[in-house]
Amino acid sequence: MPPILTPDGRRAAAFPQQPSLESEMAENQNAGTKIPAEIAALSFEEALAQLQDLVKKLERGDNKLDEAISSYERGALLKQHCEAKLREAQMKVEKIVLGANGSVGTQPMDTD
Predict the structure, then answer these.
(1) Whether the Cβ atoms of residue 79 and residue 33 lie closer than 8 Å to each other
(2) 1-50 pLDDT, tens per residue?
(3) Does 68 map to a domain?
(4) DSSP bridge pairs for 88
């Protein structure tokens, strides 16, 4: 039997999920996906540390199934947040420009 896909092409969950965090979601403008406001407020370093802790916990394998699924879902959101933060930093670095006379300068990042 082929897998059931969500409208955005992802594989649908085979088991009913707990209530969604949609009420707590904030639009992450950089990634174009919804990230919980609690995660969106984290710095790159904080999110990465949490992600590393979750990975270690999952690798140990001593979680109950529901906990492992919740940890995996949170880890995916933390990963998206970290990737968005890295893209922001990359955009700032890419705004360093070379002037006509060979001097190096910067231009403000256009966030529109």
Answers:
(1) no
(2) 455 655 656 665 544 444 333 333 444 444 456 899 999 999 999 999 99
(3) yes
(4) none
Alpha-carbon distances, residue 47 vs 15, 29, 59, 76 (angstroms): 28, 17, 18, 11
- Residue 87, domain member (yes or no): yes
Which residue segment(s) compose the domain that 40 sits in?
A: 22-106
Query: What's the whole-model pTM score?
Result: 0.58
Residue 105's DSSP bridge partners are 97
- Domain-embedded: residue 46: yes
CB 22 within 8 A of CB 37: no
CB contact at 8 A, 97 and 107? yes
